[in-house]
Amino acid sequence: MYRSNTCGELRIENVGQTVTLAGWVQRTRKMGGMTFVDLRDRYGITQLVFNEETNAELCANANKLGREYVLQVTGVVNERYSKNDKMPTGDIEIIVSEMKVLNASDTPPFTIEENTDGGDELRMKYRYLDLRRSNVRENIELRHKFCLAVRHFLDAKGFIEVETPVLVGSTPEGARDFIVPSRMNPGQFYALPQSPQTLKQLLMVAGMDRYFQIVKCFRDEDLRADRQPEFTQIDCEMSFVQQDDIISLFEEMTKHLFKEVRGYDLGEQPFLRLPWAEAMRRFGSDKPDMRFGMEFVELMDVMKGTGSFPVFNDAAYIGGICATGCASYTRKQLDELTNFVKSQQIGAKGLVYARVGEDGSVKSSVDKFYEPEVLNNLKAAMNAQPGDLILILSGEDAMKTRRQLCELRLLMGERLGLRDKNKFSLLWVVDFPMFEWSEEEGRLMAMHHPFTSPKPSDIAKLDTDPANVLADAYDMVCNGVEVGGGSIRIHDAELQAKIFDVLGFTPEKAQEQFGFLMNAFKYGAPPHGGLAYGLDRWVSLFAGLDSIRDCIAFPKNNSGRDVMLDAPSCVDQAQLDELQLILQEKKVN
Ligand code: ASP
Question: Distance between CA 498 and CA 453 in Å, rounded?
Fold first, then answer.
């Protein structure tokens, strides 16, 4: 037996017991004839005491211990003279009588403390040391608890977890695939799944009725703080359901997880369901942060053509937000906001502002172009109060300008302390458009994915006005983050073929890429739908993290590299030969 107890377990009631602990040396302190060692394991830290007077040899050995040495110690639990109420074990210490060094350690490259001196890259290179830090470990533990709670909930609702393959075929829609060459089929490639979308639909055709899987997905995209090339989804699908059935079941799961795992009560009220078009109009985003208001006010009627300001007079959209109590912003603070808007280059023209003074008067950066009456109309339209700052963006592309105003709203929300990480605001965004126009491809693309069902009432519009067809698709949004999304699926081979046609596939190409699905639909596909949650995002929201990386045991960095494993890396010529692959000469600039 290596240990009788863990390093997080002993309390005042254990005083007098002889115990054996094992763990890592967090730090040692020599004070006069006494040496104190903090011994750490996953469960906590316990203070060990070595006394020169009572056991000089043992104490001398303790003085030689380095950080992260692995020890086994036996001793008696003693009540501490000076207690530490910051540590759960802070009332006691162990008077050590025996010590065995189980393993020595090199000095770690950074301190293994909650606040470490290690930079990001170094911590990632030595992630196994980073994971010893309690705050990092807690994120991994939270993730485990989260997954367990998901499995229990879904199991109780009749879902079964079914694994789907990791080596699948490449599909043309969606993000870029990671591809894997096949040695046994030279010149041919597998792809890693971007999600198990078509496979879970086939499981519905197979009569599985309720499926889920906590599953890795792979997308070869440019990375941001909340993106990883491989990430985990809670993937779900159900048969014989409509949108309402799915929304209410997963709303129940969400409330349950918040309560069980985060200890946060989302209340009895159903989540708000906001149509996509309204979300874009009021917040400029399909994932609005609803922890605060600061809704957009459209100002076309008030500011366009009512003065001589050319920028507004040429605009296709003018919108404002009202920042409570910010009228006292200095020139420098306003310049910062202007620079923020400029640096983003989303498409809006420069920032226009108006301060409402304590006496109710309005002073704006475009005063010279407008009569005072117009500025008063502006104040009224914005419902601005004395002390408020009105921020206005305009542009020739309404959608782009709204998106930029959304960024400004989020920034102001942050500045005003309205984006509290311990507060959660959830909603569904519904009624997404089926398609969006891709400038790059010069065609309509599926906004969700090509298997999403159009709203039945909009099917007739597929021929005449596809850009305005709405989908039975929904996203769950929490604090401005899309935590999940899904849709009712097409289960009719003919309708599926029609959608491929709108997306610009020839019948032959559609058959080649998705024949397996359309064939399956000929054999009694049930009506079905589902959704997938981003596990990493959700756990990082619960943990209050800015990056999903911190809740992944072995994440990749911003260039998609695993710096610990040094992957990706070159392979031997023999491996390439076996795969019949020839690498192009590296292009030198
Ligand atoms: N497979 C979809 C996705 O990864 C989710 C869904 O429609 O269920 O976004």
Answer: 11
Rg (CA), the chain: 30
Q: Is residue 580 part of a domain?
A: no
What one-character DSSP code corresponds to residue 284? S
Task: Confirm or reject: Cβ of 486 under 6 Å from ligand 1.
Answer: yes
Q: Is pLDDT above 90 for 197?
A: yes
Residue with tokens 């998106």: 403
pLDDT in tens, 514-540: 999 999 999 999 999 999 999 999 999
Q: Is 198 in the pocket of ligand 1 (CB under 6 A)?
A: no
Report CA(45)–ligand 1 centroid distance (Å). 43
pTM of the complete model beyond 0.85: yes
CATH code assigned at 19: 2.40.50.140
Q: In this structure, are 208 and 265 located in the same domain?
A: yes
Distance 475 CA to ligand 1 centre (A): 10
197 within ligand 1 shell (Cβ under 6 A)? yes
User: What pLDDT digit, counting tens, does each position of 409-449 carry?
Assistant: 999 999 999 999 999 999 999 999 999 998 888 889 999 99
Q: What tens digit of pLDDT does each residue of 484-516 get? A: 999 999 999 999 999 999 999 999 999 999 999
Domain assignment of residue 201, yes or no: yes
Helices (DSSP H) in 46-189: which residue ranges?
A: 56-63, 120-125, 127-130, 134-156
Determine, yes or no, domain membership for 499. yes
Q: Please write down the HEC assignment for all residues of 305-316.
A: CCCCCHHHHCCC
User: What six digits make up the tokens of 395?
Assistant: 């542009």
Q: Is the CB of 196 under 6 A from ligand 1?
A: no
pLDDT confidence tier of residue 174, bands split at 50, 70 and 90: confident
Q: How far away, in angstroms, is 75 Cα from ligand 1 center?
A: 55
CA atoms of 533 and 364, how far apart (whole Å): 45
Is residue 245 domain-shared with residue 327, that is, in the same domain?
Answer: no
Q: Among 195, 247, 489, name the best residue to mutate to test ligand 1's pocket (greatest count of ligand atoms within 8 A of Cβ).
A: 195
Atom of ligand 1 nearest to the CA of 452: 7
Beta bridge pairs of residue 426: 478
Same domain? For 411 and 435 the reply is no
In which domain, by residue range, is 410 found? Answer: 292-415
Whether the predicted pLDDT of 589 surpasses 60: no
Q: Are residues 430 and 411 in the same domain?
A: no
DSSP 383: T
| Total domains, the chain | 3
The per-residue pLDDT of the chain, averaged, comes to: 95
Tell whether the model's pLDDT for residue 588 goes beyond 70.
Answer: no
* Binding site membership of 530 for ligand 1 (Cβ less than 6 Å): yes
Contact yes or no for 427/279 (Cβ under 8 A): no
213 Cβ below 6 A of ligand 1: no
Residues 492 and 527 in one domain: yes
Q: Choose one of 159, 482, 531 to mutate for the ligand 1 pocket test, by most ligand atoms within 8 angstroms of C-beta.
A: 531
CATH number at residue 215: 3.30.930.10
Is 186 within the bounds of a domain?
Answer: no
Confidence of residue 350 (pLDDT cuts 50, 70, 90): confident
Per-residue pLDDT band for 586 (boundaries 50, 70, 90) equals confident
CA nearest ligand 1 atom 7, residue: 486
Ligand 1 within 6 A of CB of 99: no
Which amino acid is it at 354?
A: A
Q: Pick from 532, 553, 446: which is nearest to 483 by CA?
A: 532
Give yes or no: residues 394 and 440 share one domain.
no
